[in-house]
Amino acid sequence: MGMPTVKDRTVQMLLKMVMEPIWEADFYYFSNGFRPGRCTMDCIQPLYQLCGTKAGYRWVIEGDIRACFDKIPHEHLLSAVARRIADTGMLALIRRFLKSGIMIERTLVQSSEGTPQGGMASPLLANIYLHRFDEWYSQHYGIPDKKRDKRAYETWQRRRFKGKDQAAVQMFRYADDWIFVIRGTSAQAQCIKEACKTFLRDEMG
Known about the structure:
This protein is an alpha+beta fold. It has one domain. Helices cover 51% and strands 13% of the residues. The strands form two sheets. A three-stranded antiparallel sheet has the order 1-5-4, with helices on both faces. Helix 4 crosses helix 6. The protein is elongated.
């Protein structure tokens, strides 16, 4: 874990204070790690309630993105940030601290990937990068927003209760740990598992 200087920590905290409200408007309700006012129980409680009912959620896919903080590609991360941050000065500042490297026994080691785990803004940046995974889930398996598209929500409800042509999938994510809970067949659960593996390998680096 890298330990930024006091000056670097101050700058990163200011960056976080500016960026966090912008991205909080985009983050999904099932993402709970390193977010204001949220904790592990925000994942555990609904998961416990879901699995403890007779709703038929029988299959669970659990994943942990290996060395997530250490392996985030800088260019992919900066592209994700640039979707909501247009200020070139701020983007340049983020790039600088991502590329700043770390001192190991008075030797500067350059960093070509990852976010500094001791950095104040690193958890937020990791969530911004992992938001791509949340978007993928939402597009393929997520529950439609009833207020925005009532017809799509009602169609999803009908298919969910049939449990035949379309599996019902609930996602819970805490930082780089995630769980899919599935109501459907074993074959559907296996298909979803393979789709997750393919997306994470091909699209998330």
